[in-house]
Amino acid sequence: MIRPLLPLLIASSLQAQVLPGTQPLEPNADFSATMVAGIDKIALRLIEKSKEGRKPTREKLRAALGMVDARLPITALELVGDTSAPALLAETATARILRVRWPVFEGVHGEGILIQPKDKPVARVIYIPDADTDPEKLANDAMLAYSGCEIVIPALISRGSEFSTNGKFGVKTNIPHREWIYRQSYELGRHIIGYEVQKMLSLVDYFSAQPKLPLLVAGLGEGGLLAMYSGAIDERISSVYVWGCFEPREGVWAEPIYRNVFGLLRDFGDAEVASLIAPRPMVVQNLGFPNVQGPPEAKQGERNIAAPGKITKPGLAAVQAEVARAKALAPGDWLMLATEEHGLKEVVTHLLPKEIAEQLVKTIEPVMPQKNEQRARVDSTRQKRLVRELENFTQRLLVSTELERKAQFWDKLPLKSVADFEKHTAAERERFWNEVIGRLPDPNLPVNAKSRFVRETDKVSIYEVTMDVWDDVFAWGWLCLPKDLKPGEKRPVVVCQHGLEGIPEDTITTDETQKAYAPYKAFTLRLAEQGFITFAPHNPYRGKDAFRTLQRKLNPLGLTLYSVINGQHQRILEWLKAQPFTQPGKIAFYGLSYGGKSAMRTPAVLTDYCLSICSGDFNEWVRKCVSTDMPMSYIHTHEYEIWEWNMGRTFNYAEMAALIAPRPFMVERGHNDGVGVDEWVNYEFAKVRRLYNKLLIGERTTIEHFDGPHTIHGVGTFEFLKEKLEWK
Questions:
Q1: Taking the CB of residue 349, how many other CB atoms lie within 10 A of it?
Q2: In DSSP terms, which residues pair with 172 in a beta bridge?
Q3: Angle at which helices 561-578 and 594-601 pack, to 10 degrees?
Q4: pTM of the predicted model, to two decimals?
Q5: Coiled-coil segments, which residues (predicted)?
Q6: Residue 658: in which H helix or E strand, if any?
Q7: 230 by DSSP, 3-state: which?
């Protein structure tokens, strides 16, 4: 029987109860929270440091925004209307206002309002509203309507949540439409921002085929962000006018998650984006920032699962500093910061050629007529079309990205010998670590291991251990040593990884009154009772928003939480291999749930793990993350940090297992485990079995199904460990 957790030890007794070669460890009320706080510090330091040495290019910006899909050719804008809602919305003596759309991708259109002068236009404008502003509102209030400019006002995916649902399963959520598309596209290497920039550039394609005129792209709030990115990417745009979005971008982690762009801060703040517009004219208007305090409140019957995030107006000093950085990157008078003191004449004169600017300033009238019959009516059906078109397009990518992985990964594998296979996959492993997981420098502090005795059973002594990794970052876990371990004897090690919101003790306790006990069944302790050395490390996916915010801070740096976790495991492996009681070549990994997630991502890059067992997690992972048709999909859950950039085009679970090969690999799968369905789990594992069979090492991989829920089964896996680690 396990003794209760001992009281805090006094210093003298602590000195006597430490592992050889370690210093005494002072107890901590919550090592997990301390760990998360330390990782937060290093993330913030890296964000601040990211401003050094950025090298912005248009190609990097396109890649970061996931602009990988070719746009369809465009020769004309299509009119949108029918007998009940005609395309012509309003007409004045000088202009017509029409509902229009244009093709972007197969099945995806841009939609909006065209203000068409009756005389020959003097300039063209793409006037992008904020996400929560209907184009008709800008059409009604557009001061350029009488100016002789041809204007398209596109509609954006909104921050509402009415269509963030899958009717097939009745799952309704408070996820903003922009986050709804973000959740589906991010895993597939696309982005809601990239999609909408493509819609703007389709208009640029159209205008570029017309007689040449100056082309101004202007935007408000979310539209300002799109205007800035569009102008940076496409040099056919003559000038850019941005309202309510230009600011230091190092705080993007606190903004709505649909602004989370992987790797953005490595090369881009707003200053760097703006520098790609230079020397073309740009005006930053320090007004019009949307007041977004979070996602919509969940209505009755809706899941309250949207990610937190705010948009607030920055201080003028911060904006001025970012403008100064932009001018330092691209010297000249191309960039103007407009405040309340600047009039329209100054802005227009800066943005457009002098002769056109003078004409516009003279002819602009305040607003369009206010008579109801002359005001454009809002298209109430448009938002649903915009959301569903991008959703359908993204869902189809589940097929094409699998074919892409086949062509880029599987078709290139040399399978005639294990040696050739290992040589080839070494480079793929580096690609996975550097480009998908994100790689931090190797641990750079001395190990400085500390330990303390925690408790014991009849067969096992249990210690708590910490090791330093980087400044403010440490590794922590519980070590189980069998009491029959003889002096000088070396044994295999099993690293046993907990799941979401867990701690090391959860995998050791046998107290059935503890809720955390149920899924783990004390597997760390049970394996130690069978003679293995076991170590239960802590992975920092605990604390709800506290750890999810870490992912938000790391993503713009091209990093993920596993960038940190894998560094911690580098240190854990280093320490375990150096212990007198371990066999350095026989250190295995076994994880449940999020620990099973770790079993795919950590041994895939750390080859000192001699085998891996994934329990309660192996899946057709990309489909689980992206599909709106699967009830257990992460699209419908609160784990808003779960998506990993571009995974769908690069590495699903079978590809990760291939990076573990030729080392032994096993899957533990309960038939009633709601994280997936047997058919999709087996579909993905079939690729793994086929690979091992082709390498003539089929005996090194297996899957065990059992009648049970999301839990450690501990039958076939225990036998697998005994066989592969040669422990009797």
A1: 18
A2: 165
A3: 80
A4: 0.94
A5: none
A6: helix 653-660
A7: helix
